[in-house]
Design a protein that fits this description.
By secondary structure, the chain is an alpha/beta fold. It has helices at 24-27, 58-62, 70-76, 80-87, 108-123, 131-155, 159-184, 192-205, 211-223, 245-252, 263-270, 275-290, 294-341, 356-363, 371-377, 383-388, 397-411, 420-444, and strands at 2-3, 6-7, 20-22, 31-32, 35-40, 43-46, 91-95, 366-367, 417-418.
Length: 445
């Protein structure tokens, strides 16, 4: 097998030597579950066996099988030289000189300009963290938890005090969710190991969830946002149909697991109320136990031990459990609206093999900046900048936003910004539109 007129045999993984040159057509033959090659900086790597050992999970790296993964590789790894040590033994060759550096529909001009922008913001120190910002954020989370418990301890467990306690705990949980997101993206400490450690503390001890579960799920979303079969966030388990393509497919095939033309109505019953207290809770516990992730399970159980130790003397075990469930219920509404308003109304499709900027912009939009929107969404109102630069500390998103907008305007890539209320309303209207497409296809095609 070879390319560019040179016939060579592929190198064995582990040799660390490039034995051949390949065309994109040849690389793209290796994209099955057990046979996966990818390209980084024109070098061809066989990740078939190593993918299972990938710290971010086998799926996220497997989503780039047969493709150029250079932009994703740069976006997700803070120390590229360190990661190259793991890639070197997997090297099997390089692209033929006659082959372009990018595959599929990826725009070489956009890739070049985006890489230039990334280099500039790195030189300006926009990937450097302000420690005080994250210390204050953690402090206000701990303060809310302490005040909620102290209030109930001193003033009793009346309905009014309990309701206020639940709101404070839900606020603490939601804000801890945004904070664990920062550590999970390695955007706080320079050393990854410290980000990983504090991530386990925040998502495990403060929230009762699993860092590994979150990593393996969330990085797939970032690698291939709003792409069916690759982004787990658009896998709705047949409860909803999304976008413009899936509803028609379901309608033509006469698939009717739910009355999808009414999904914008039952969304309020099964989406915001149940995602965290039911679906995520069951998935997290199942993942930790089936994968024997005892470290994450220990962190998670430390949250439950602390919570019941504090609240059982005040409410009893069942009362404490009811309070926790109500807090999760409130947090779930907060989480669903914030995370879906940036993505659900955007394009949701199958793989198109687009460049990083185009792919991310078609799947994301921003919400207008304000002090409240920044705090309420954990700065995910700058969803575009977050998706383009996932390791950038969130307090710097606004500093790069205008340059991202200018780059998008230069290349004709839509850069969307909405009000908070318009974005939330678009979640419902997009579900309604998809449901109508399904009904039309179901009845007439």
């Amino acid at each position: 097998m070879g390319g560019g007129g040179q016939q060579t045999e592929p190198a064995e993984p582990g040799s660390g030597k490039a034995a051949g040159v390949y065309t994109w057509e040849e690389v793209q033959k290796h994209r099955s579950r057990n046979d996966q090659w990818l390209v980084v900086n024109r070098k061809v790597y066989n990740i078939s066996q190593w993918a299972r050992r990938h710290p971010g999970g086998s799926r996220v790296i497997g989503h780039y099988a047969g493709e150029d993964a250079t932009e994703a590789f740069t976006a997700f790894h803070p120390d590229l030289k360190f990661v190259q040590k793991f890639l070197k033994p997997l090297l099997v060759g390089e692209l033929a000189a006659s082959e372009p550096s990018q595959d599929g529909k990826k725009n070489a001009s956009i890739i070049k300009d985006f890489e230039s922008l990334r280099s500039k913001v790195e030189e300006e120190g926009l990937f450097h963290t302000k420690p005080l910002f994250f210390c204050l954020h953690l402090g206000h989370i701990l303060l809310l938890e302490a005040l909620a418990w102290t209030m109930v301890s001193y003033w009793g467990t009346s309905w009014t005090i309990t309701s206020l306690c639940a709101v404070m705990l839900a606020t603490s949980q939601a804000q801890a969710g945004w904070l664990q997101h920062d550590f999970g993206h390695l955007s706080v400490f320079k050393k990854s190991k410290w980000n990983h450690l504090v991530h386990k503390f925040v998502i495990g001890h403060l929230k009762g969830a699993s860092a590994n579960w979150w990593n393996h799920r969330h990085f797939q979303h970032h690698a291939k946002p709003n792409i069916f079969k690759k982004d787990p966030d658009v896998n709705m388990l047949d409860v909803f149909v999304l976008g413009k393509t899936q509803p028609v497919e379901y309608g033509v095939k006469k698939i009717k697991h739910m009355p999808y033309n009414h999904q914008h109505k039952y969304f309020f019953l099964v989406g915001p109320p149940l995602l965290i207290p039911v679906y995520f809770h069951m998935q997290i516990m199942n993942t930790m136990i089936t994968r024997r992730d005892w470290v994450d399970l220990a962190w998670s159980l430390s949250y439950y031990f602390r919570y019941f130790y504090c609240y059982t003397p005040l409410y009893g075990f069942l009362g404490s459990l009811a309070l926790m469930t109500f807090v999760r219920f409130l947090e779930s509404h907060w989480f669903v609206w914030v995370t879906q308003m940036n993505h659900l109304p955007m394009e949701i499709e199958y793989e198109k093999n687009q460049d990083w900027l185009t792919m991310q912009l078609q799947a994301t939009c921003n919400i207008e900046q304000s002090w409240f929107n920044d705090w309420f969404s954990g700065h995910l109102n700058f969803q575009i900048e977050h998706h383009l630069f996932p390791m950038m500390p969130r307090h710097n998103y606004h500093l790069v936003a205008q340059r991202v907008r200018a780059l998008c305007e230069k290349h004709g890539v839509p850069y969307g910004t909405k009000t908070l209320w318009r974005a939330m309303a678009d979640v419902v209207s997009s579900l309604k539109s998809s449901g109508e497409l399904w009904l039309d296809a179901y009845l007439h095609k």
